[in-house]
Structure formats: structure tokens, C-alpha cells
Amino acid sequence: MPGIGFDWDDLRYFLAVAQTGQLSSAARRLRSNHVTVSRRIDRLEQSLSLRLFERSPRGYTLTGVGERLVAHAQAMEQTADGLHEIISGEAAALRGVIRLSTPEGFGSFFLSSRLPDFASRNPGLLIEFMTLQQILSLSRREADISVALHPPAAGPYQVEKIARYRLLVYASRSYLERHPPIRSRAEAMEHPLAGYIDDMIFAPGLDYLRDILPGKRAGYQSSSIIAQLAAGLAGYGMTILPYFIARAYPQLVPVLPQELHIEREYWLSCREDLADAPRIRVVRDFIRSEAAAFEEMFMARPILQD
Known about the structure:
Elements: H1 10-20, H2 23-30, H3 34-48, E1 53-56, E2 59-62, H4 64-88, H5 90-93, E3 96-103, H6 104-109, H7 115-121, E4 125-132, E5 145-148, E6 157-172, H8 173-177, H9 185-188, E7 193-195, H10 208-212, E8 220-221, H11 225-233, E9 238-242, H12 243-246, E10 252-254, E11 261-271, H13 278-293, H14 295-298
Parallel strand pairs: 3-4, 3-5, 7-8, 7-9
Antiparallel strand pairs: 1-2, 5-11, 6-9, 6-10, 6-11
Helix pairs in contact: 1-2, 1-3, 1-4, 2-3
């Protein structure tokens, strides 16, 4: 009968491969090697008399049976974490791998300076921190926790808004000194602007120009906010940046800040089936707390009031 006599610990290897799709990535998560991971997967499939993955040069893809097993394996993992928490205490239960995905701006200019201290205080956690120009899928297990500009459209997720933030139009001091003063929105429309590539805007929240300078088209386009920041610093012209990023660069000057600003939001999400796992809960609590403490800078309160 399938299921008799398999090693429960093999499920940890199964989950790691299911979440990463690669033996090498799973091995890094488990602090093992790809040969051991492959052997464990083969052994689990033999024990269950089931094929859990389709193998290809691109990696491992779950079969239909494998997809159904994932939820049960995750439930078992959570139960084990819960028992460990009861027996050993919360601190000891904080172990395992967490893949965290955030937008480039939030990750690189806000969270990246805070996360190392959190990681040092929680050495049992292996944090995989990704700052990307696209949205990773929680449903496909590309990430465990996600920060995004919008909540997921649908699905079994726990979702919460963790911050509002404001973006303004900026130009370098040297650029403004070379040109006549910008006194109106109409005059701002005459200046070159660095922004996102039109057909690579992966979230509606990144379509800043539609709201702040309708009808304006970026003459210098990049998929990276870091590259747009660099263009502004280099004196190309104007660029649209979150205040919490631009404030670190005194050579950037807000253009008509009382008139030319917009507001966006950050949303924190994780899958419902992972929400109560101690390792997930502590990271969510950390991000929520850090975002709340930074509210004044997110909202540009030093120069703008509600």
C-alpha cells in the first residue's frame, strides 16, 4: 500500500524541490548537496509508488499527484514547527528558509539596510531576499512572503496594507541651474524625463506619468528605478521617485512638490497555509513594524502634509 514505510524527513526535501524547482537551489536551502536531494526524492517516490516530479533539463516540475501532496506536506511541516515551538519556545522554532520578494525600490532603499540586523538576531533562519522588477507568484511558490504595490487579485492569501508612500518629480540641482525656473505643470511638461519602459510596466501602480503628468512620455526609459535615479543624478532631466529614496540625495530637488506628487501603497502577502508558521510570522511582524516606524518618511511629511 502506498505510504507505508517512507521517511517523514524526506518530505522536507520534497518541499524544497517543489518550492525551488531545482536540485541545486533546494540543496542550498537545506544546506545539503544536490546528490543527497536527488536520492531523497527518488527514495520518497519509490516508497509512495508515485511519481511526484517530471524531470527536464530546466528542472523539476510537480505532477498532479505532487501538487496534491504539497499541501499535506506543508501542513505536516507547520505541525512540526508548532510542536517544536511548544516544546522549545518561540526562539528555537525560528528556523528554516524564507524566500522574500519585494519591489526594487522598497527592497534596495528601505529593507536592505534593516534586514541584516534581523537576520543576525535570527541565525536559524535562512533568508532569500529578492528585489525584482517583476511580481513573483505566491501560488507557484516562487516566494513565501511578498511585498507588492497591489494585493493579489485572488487566492488563499493573508494580505495587509503596510504602508502608503508618496512620489514626487525631481531634477538635479545642476540641471535646474542650467534651465529657467519651472513654475507650472505645463512648464514641467517641456522638460525631458526618465521613467519606466512603456510596455514593461508590470503593475498599474508603476504607471506614474498617467497620474502625475498626463500625456507626458519618458524620453529615457529603464525597467530599473535605480537606473532612473542615476539618470536624474546625472542631470538628464526630471524623474519620478519615492521621497524616501530621493531624500538621501541632496543634489536632487523636488519640482513643484505641492502640486506634482502622487501616492501609492505597499501590500504584504503570504499564503494562507504558511501564515501561522513561526518563521513566516516573525518576518511579517518585522516588516510591518519597520514600515510603521518609517511612516513619516514614506509619506514625505518633512515637505508635504496631509
